[in-house]
Design brief:
Layout: H1 5-14, H2 20-23, E1 24-31, E2 39-40, H3 42-56, E3 62-68, E4 72-81, E5 84-94, E6 100-108, H4 110-127
Parallel strand pairs: 1-6
Antiparallel strand pairs: 1-2, 3-4, 4-5, 5-6
Helix pairs in contact: 3-4
């Protein structure tokens, strides 16, 4: 069974979200650290992840740990956004076809959530 992790890491390294949609199942569910309800579907998840590429993936972004299972992974990351150190995890699940079915982002501390909320809202608004 193939996993989408290598392709995801390439997107992170390149800082280019062009390949995101190809990694997602049509019914993928995205859980944002700043939006209460899960976002369902490839289109909306692509928008969120494309915005995240612009907000999170700067030269300071790096994964510090990975725990990988047969069809899921937890990827702990660190980055700095507007002088705030952001620590978080990407929790990713995929199906037998290697398509992501669930992508959950959790972020800490509170200041990081606040700056991420501000930046993500601006990116998503601009995309509309």
């Amino acid at each position: 069974m193939k996993t989408p992790l290598a392709a995801w890491h390439q997107i992170v390294r390149d800082g280019n979200g062009a390949g995101i949609a190809a990694l997602l199942a049509d019914d993928v569910v995205f859980h944002s650290p700043v939006v209460h309800t899960p976002q369902v579907g490839k289109r909306i998840t692509t928008h969120y992840l494309m915005a995240a590429v612009h907000v999170f993936f700067n030269p300071s972004f790096h994964y510090v740990r990975e725990v990988v299972g047969e069809r899921d992974a937890v990827l702990e990351f660190e980055t700095t956004v507007d002088g705030i150190v952001v620590n978080g995890v990407d929790m990713v699940s995929w199906n037998d076809d290697g398509l992501i079915t669930s992508f959950k982002v959790m972020v800490r501390p509170l200041k990081a959530i606040q700056v991420i909320h501000e930046k993500m809202a601006a990116m998503l608004q601009a995309a509309r």
